[in-house]
Structures are given as structure tokens and as C-alpha cells.
Amino acid sequence: MVWFGDSHFTDRKPSIMASKDHPGLMPTKEAPAPGEPMSLHQHLIDSGAQLLQSLDPVKQMQQHVCTFATYSHDMTRQIETHHYITRPNEDFLQCAVYDSDEADARLLGVEYIVSDKIFETLEPEEQKLWHSHTYEIKAGLWVNPGVPEMVLMPELNTLAKSYGKFWCTWQVDRGDMLPMGPPALMMSLQDHELGQVQRNLIENRDNKYNLSRDALTQTRNEIQGPQGGVNRNADYWTKTGKGFVLEVEQAEIKAVAPFP
Which family does it belong to (predicted)? Predict the structure, then answer.
């Protein structure tokens, strides 16, 4: 079930299975998911499978993007994200989202990205679950590490007109050692009092990749968003101060298919 909640708090009783739980201490890389270390036997099995299987869907990932996201229901929580992008066609991208670009990165969730042409065909209630990318790109939050801006510019011009829908299944920033509870809807940061990117996130990103957000915003000054502006249903929280929360409810199982 999806329902509206205040971006900072709700008056509903917190549920152990709710995606609105408050964060705890951020786990470090010294505290990975629980489990025994990989055995030599398992390494051999994986190596053999890699040789014998195609793994074609994974091989279609062509881009790495580092950016930032915030929780739809709690703008005080912001995370760095690493998108590994597959592009099935010119109007649709799908991204596996990790918490870092390291070999032991944790899979946080998935984001789907559509062109403004596709977005405009969606129902208004569906559009409210999506966020725009215009500010994220123009403000130097969205970067492709290692790719020169000159090479990237055509792609940035296209993506600045796109919209994304990002579900986070593993909330590592609240201390979860495993994916817990239902997914949380994520939003892009905006030039809004509730959605200003935290300075330390930018500083850490710029230091790691030898970047300058100020320089990026200057080179991207001429990038344009969707014609006519960002759709009013996207970035819904910026107009209402309300986010979306998912909760788990028990339901009867459908045991018999309906007649045609």
C-alpha cells in the first residue's frame, strides 16, 4: 500500500516492517552482510559458471554514474549512489544502484529512467512517484567518473529531460545489515529548502574523483530541461511537502484465477 506521509515525520505508529524507520549508525565496509567468507570451493564454482554462462544482461551495463538521492519520506537522509546503467532503447534506461564503486559494493535498489516523451504518457498518480533529473545534472550532482565533460555533454543534454523512479530495497544508512522491510521510494535532490544536498557528500565525491562541483555547474549552464519545464507531477514533494511510504499488509492469497 502506498500512502502520503509528511516529509519529516508521520503521526502513524512506526511499524517494524515500515520503510519510514529512523536510521541508525551507518555500517562500515568492515561490517559486511552477515555470513561466512567465500570458500575456495565456492570460488571455483563461480569461476566455472562464469565461463559456461553468458551473463548477457549484466554485460549490457555501459555506464557508471555517481549521484545522490534522498528518501521521499525523510529529506534529512541523503545517500551517495552509484548507478550501473543499461539502455534497452533511446527512451528507457534501467539502473542497478549500489552504495559504492568498490568490488564489495552493496546493491541498494533499482532505478528506471524514461524520456520526457514517455513520462508524459503516464497517469498523473503514477507521475507523482517519479523525480526529474534537470537540476541534478545542471547542479553538478550527476557525474560519470572518469568521462570528460566534453564527451559526456550530449548524454547530459538528453538525461536532463528525463525522469526517474528509484526504489531502495537496502537502507544501509539506517544500519541495516540486510535488506529489511518494504522498499523506500527515493527522490532526486532539488534547489528546494528541504532538498539541498549535504556539503560533506559533495566534498567526499569531489575529493575521490578529483572533481569540482562549481566547475561542473559552469560547464553545464546551457543544458536545458524538458520543453515547457519539468512536469508539475514530478518531484511531488516540492509542491506539497508530502512524500510516499510503503507498508506491508497481510492479504488473502488468490488461489483461483478469475474467469475470462
Answer: Belongs to the OBAP family.
